[in-house]
Amino acid sequence: MMMSKPWIFKRQELVRFGHCDPAGIVFYPRYFEMLNALVEDWFTQGLGIDYAQLLGPRRVGMPSVRLSADFKRVSRMGDLLTQRIAINKLGRSSLGLTLQFDGTNNDEDGCRVAFEQVLVCTSLDTHKAQPFPPDLRAALERVTGAAT
Amino acid sequence: MMMSKPWIFKRQELVRFGHCDPAGIVFYPRYFEMLNALVEDWFTQGLGIDYAQLLGPRRVGMPSVRLSADFKRVSRMGDLLTQRIAINKLGRSSLGLTLQFDGTNNDEDGCRVAFEQVLVCTSLDTHKAQPFPPDLRAALERVTGAAT
Amino acid sequence: MMMSKPWIFKRQELVRFGHCDPAGIVFYPRYFEMLNALVEDWFTQGLGIDYAQLLGPRRVGMPSVRLSADFKRVSRMGDLLTQRIAINKLGRSSLGLTLQFDGTNNDEDGCRVAFEQVLVCTSLDTHKAQPFPPDLRAALERVTGAAT
Amino acid sequence: MMMSKPWIFKRQELVRFGHCDPAGIVFYPRYFEMLNALVEDWFTQGLGIDYAQLLGPRRVGMPSVRLSADFKRVSRMGDLLTQRIAINKLGRSSLGLTLQFDGTNNDEDGCRVAFEQVLVCTSLDTHKAQPFPPDLRAALERVTGAAT
Question: Is any Cβ of chain B less than 8 angstroms from the Cβ of D25?
Answer without folding.
Answer: no
